[in-house]
Specification:
The structure holds two protein chains of two kinds.
Chain A: H1 2-18, H2 26-47, H3 50-72, H4 77-83, H5 90-101, H6 105-130
Helix pairs in contact in A: 1-2, 1-4, 2-3, 2-4, 3-4, 3-6, 5-6
Chain B: H1 2-26, H2 31-44, E1 48-54, E2 57-64, E3 67-74, H3 82-96, H4 102-113, H5 120-137, H6 143-164, H7 169-189, H8 196-203, H9 210-221, H10 225-256
Antiparallel strand pairs in B: 1-2, 2-3
Helix pairs in contact in B: 1-2, 1-3, 1-4, 2-3, 3-4, 5-6, 5-8, 6-7, 6-8, 7-8, 7-10, 9-10
The chains are: A mainly alpha, B mainly alpha.
Chain lengths: 153, 257
């Protein structure tokens, strides 16, 4: 579990670098992703259902990226884009196409449905967190533009 | 007299706003944020903006005391650079605080436009690291990670080369995933790694369209059906191309060995 979270941290930071995230924000992006992965694995073990786990982890990741965004006055997308990578059903998407071309229809259907449901859960989770009013995240600061209303992209 | 100044302003202002929107959109800023930033800039200079944004196009109508000017711009898909999004966002805040005239803002925007991504070697290293850590997350162990690191960084080097030569996008993905598979197979047959599948998924993770699929679903939920369709089709085509690349390489190797 600890190795897993550490690996998620490294992976997210790597993606942050590839996406051109400023150096000062790498660690926050990494934290967002690592905590998200920890929540995902924990919930997945507890409920043994990776769709709920994805949903809850997505909510947490989006919340975190909004909190960091409010604190550091940077668009939340900077943390979110890299931070959701450990939750994204990337492997399932690829395996779906892979099974289709190797004539394994059943396996393709299984991983296709997993990819779709997890992507849906992810999108819903992000959406739920995005609906929380921004002023809760930028408390203590005043003036226009103090908050960052982020939405996932 | 007043109308003349308005006309001049409209011209410069629309150029400025379009440029800012273009930089944000092509660097990976999301539609809602780009729209908000453009509107803030227009408002700060005393015009009102009406904007329609697609993932690959900008439509802007500016209104300044009844004088109207419209712009349409095609946005080619470029490499993501979130650093630029951050900078344009900060610029729009400073404009809102009244720090810059339109001309000064233009100069600032030019600087942002020339902001490069990180050095190639750094990116290649981190691409390897990404492949290695995601191979672990998908179940790869011990020497798999080493193999995934090597394959992923080599694949990223190929991607840099292919984009500098302007390969067609999907061809680039087919060849790239085939190339990644080939390297993984070579490393595997040299005795590096225990699970070929986990090496391959680590090697090609930087190409997998996971975030694209999620963006697409989110856009459908927010009733932006057109952008959602664009991203969905992109995700589907990309994963199909990857599978084609991987499987072709498997078949070729099956023939040889």
């Amino acid at each position: 579990m600890i190795t897993e979270v550490l690996m998620a941290f490294i992976g997210v930071v790597s993606f942050a670098v590839l996406l051109g995230v400023p150096k000062s924000e790498w660690i926050y992006a990494g934290l967002t992703g690592a905590i998200g992965r920890a929540v995902f694995t924990g919930t997945n073990r507890l409920l043994s259902n990776n769709i709920y786990a994805t949903l809850i982890a997505a909510i947490i990741v989006t919340l975190l990226s909004r909190i960091f965004a409010g604190k550091r006055r940077v668009p939340g997308i900077v943390y979110l884009r890299a931070g959701v990578f450990p939750l994204v059903p990337g492997a399932s998407i690829y395996y779906t196409a892979y099974y289709i071309f190797s004539h394994e229809g059943n396996m393709a259907a299984i991983s296709g449905i997993e990819a779709l449901t997890r992507a849906l859960a992810l999108a819903f989770g992000i959406m739920i967190s995005s609906q929380i009013p921004q002023r809760l995240f930028s408390a203590g600061r005043t003036g226009q533009g103090a908050g960052d209303d982020i939405k996932m992209s | 007299m007043e109308n003349l100044s308005c006309k001049l302003k409209l011209e410069n202002l629309s150029k400025l706003i379009m440029e800012a929107g273009k930089i944000m959109l092509e660097s990976g800023g999301e539609v809602s944020r780009v729209e908000e930033t453009m509107k803030i800039m227009a408002r700060s200079y005393g015009a009102s903006a009406n904007i329609y944004i697609l993932t690959n196009g900008l439509f802007l109508t500016l209104d300044c005391e009844g004088m109207i000017s419209s712009y349409v711009m095609e946005i080619p898909i470029a490499a993501m650079n979130l650093g630029r999004v951050v900078k344009v966002n900060n610029l729009s805040r400073e404009i809102q605080e009244g720090k810059y005239t339109i001309e000064e803002a233009f100069v600032k925007l030019k600087e942002i436009k020339d902001l490069p991504l990180y050095d190639k070697r750094i990116r290649i290293f981190f691409a390897g690291l990404a492949g290695c850590s995601f191979s672990y997350l998908f179940g790869g162990r011990s020497y798999d990670l080493v193999a995934a690191f090597i394959a992923s960084s080599l694949l990223f080097m190929y991607s840099l080369f292919a984009s500098s030569k302007r390969f067609p996008k999907y061809l680039q993905i087919v060849i790239g995933s085939g190339f990644g598979t080939l390297i993984s197979q070579i490393l595997f047959s040299l005795g590096l790694g225990v699970s070929l599948n986990h090496i391959i998924i680590g090697a090609i993770i930087t190409m997998v369209p996971g975030v694209t699929l999620t963006i697409s679903i989110r856009e459908f939920i927010f009733e932006d059906y057109l952008s959602g369709t664009i991203h969905l089709v992109d995700a589907l085509l990309t994963s199909m191309c990857m599978a084609v690349g991987v499987i072709t390489m498997f078949e070729i190797n099956g023939l040889i060995f």
